[in-house]
Amino acid sequence: MGKQKEVQHMEANKKSLLITGASSGLGRELAVEAAAAGYQLLLVARSEDKLKQIAEELNERFQTNVTLYKADLNNPDEWQSALQQIVRENQRIDVLINNAGVGYFRLFTDTDPTQIETTMRVNSLAAMEASAAILPVMLKQGTGHVIMIGSMAGKVATPKAAVYGASKHSIIGFSNGLRQELKPYGVHVTTVNLGPMDTNFFDTADPSGRYREASARYMLQPDKVARKVISSIGKNKREINLPSWMGIGSKVYQLMPGLAEILLGKQFNKK
């Protein structure tokens, strides 16, 4: 370990990091990278068994302190109860990563109302509720970092992802406003906007596998994304856009949405 990394590890070892949706996919990789960096972990997920498995692995590999909280973010009462417990049991929380997410890639007219509610609740409302609970702790500390796992779908809406895009667009807008509010108080807000990533997200979003197959050549790897996210902690970084070419494309879309939809219509319809 180099001298700079060793110093960073020692500093992180004094800090705690909360991750939602931590039992699989990107959340799991974020936990691994954070543990490797020396953070004390507060992990939230629906599956207690999976949480226990990752806690055992992290303790064995990194001898890090891991505290587990079982909660279904789609259940408002259960999530509020968990948040109250987290705040009650942890006097210091330095980083909040709102990572939990769900999606259903289908035409809006074929989308069940319960799927609409679940998508908006887990992707958007639960993240806002977590921020509302944890921010008073960070403000009292005078330091902190809120990281929102957004999506390129929140910047560029596509067919069969109207609801998912709306949930992520909501998070991007929330983050942009929150960032300005917290700037005077030493708390950073970063939005991580991702293209397709090779995780079990698609087991629910696209059971047919067609979109995964069509996106295979530019699928992001969750371990590499996690490394970039964890390395951004403490930095006043507005956004992380991956892959970078999609980030550039989203800016073009914002300038010329009609033309972009004509030129990229075939690509947009791959779901």
Automatic annotation (TrEMBL):
Residues 15-200 form the Ketoreductase domain. InterPro entries: KR_dom (IPR057326), NAD(P)-bd_dom_sf (IPR036291), Sc_DH/Rdtase_CS (IPR020904), SDR_fam (IPR002347). Keywords: Oxidoreductase. Pfam families: adh_short (PF00106). The keyword Oxidoreductase applies. Transmembrane segments: none annotated. Gene3D superfamilies: NAD(P)-binding Rossmann-like Domain. SUPFAM superfamilies: NAD(P)-binding Rossmann-fold domains. Belongs to the short-chain dehydrogenases/reductases (SDR) family. This is Ketoreductase domain-containing protein.
